[in-house]
Fold:
Amino acid sequence: MDNLGNVKNQVVENIDLMNDELVNISEYIFANPELAFDEYKASTLLTDVLAKHGFQVEKGIAGLETAFKAVYHGQPGGPVIGLLAEYDALPEINHACGHNLIATIATGAALAISKVLKEQKGTLVVYGTPAEEGGGGKVIMVQEKCFRELDCAMMIHPADETIVDDISLANENLVFTFHGKAAHAAAFPHKGINALEGVIQTFNQINALRGHLPSDVRIHGIVTKGGVATNIVTELAEAKFSVRALKRKTLDEVLEKVYNCAKAAALATGSKLEIAKEGLGYDEIMNNNVLTSLLKANFLQLGEPVGERTIEQGLGSTDMGNVTQIVPGFQSYIGIGKGLATHTVEFANACTGSNGHQALLKAAKALAMTVIDLLENPQHLENAKKEFKEAKEA
Ligand SMILES: [Zn+2]
Ligand SMILES: [Zn+2]
Structure:
């Protein structure tokens, strides 16, 4: 136990020593916001830094130019521990989700651990994961067999308070296209087939269905094509829906019902229906309690209070969900200011300057300390894997 304390102290000290370098990384990414799949500056900087510190870097993995994998080997054997970095920004409001901090937290923790890894059994992997804000970079990477060699995958995201647990919704985006038949809407309405009615009836059917769905289900739609002129019976109409639920299993059941709503609308109106999925489906996040308990203890040891994740805080969806469904892992949160909401200008402002720096140092330290826990005591990962297996079988 004494040794554990010493090594933890050392990684914390390493992070303090790298303060300037880490602040520069965070500020550079913040000042150069790049959209999903276009994060060339961020991924170049991160891979340059990791390579400079002795990581073996592979760029453009999973067919994504801005994805990367950086590996550092300790003594042979031991676990393979993954830290994930996001670095994409949002249109117009730039780093309003603070992914500059996520990237720097992962990199900072990785560099600090690499300095002590020569005396430890194990391998450290940093995965650069593009396009969280739409695009589902991690879903593609999961499909392309990334992360599978990891014993665990961990990431820390900024939020209004520090929380180790997470809840997110499984999500699928649907496109319903109705094909009807144009006709003069006044002179020959009986010769037309109104595709717009297909869309309207789909909304009505789904609204009728809502009363009989589990309370965690969310269905939200928009009309994307509704016709071109009031005097022409609409030949082509289109609606898009997001369907979400706390569990993938529920989501898949609800999706079948939603498809039936659209099929019924097509049958009733005589229009032809095309059903397509848009983008990649997200699974719900499955944070591993063994791992998050370690992180929580480390945050507390650093004097950082840890709050609770509740449904009342509001739920979205993230591609980190798909990663936590294939290996034990977590997405946890570092607080950057009470009351701040992601995707706002205020949130972006809190992800830079001394506020952002304090947060990233604290999170990098807690994450690095957690990796030390895992390297020093193999029982933790055994327990994490047992929990993962049981959760998958449930
Ligand atoms: Zn976001
Ligand atoms: Zn985010």
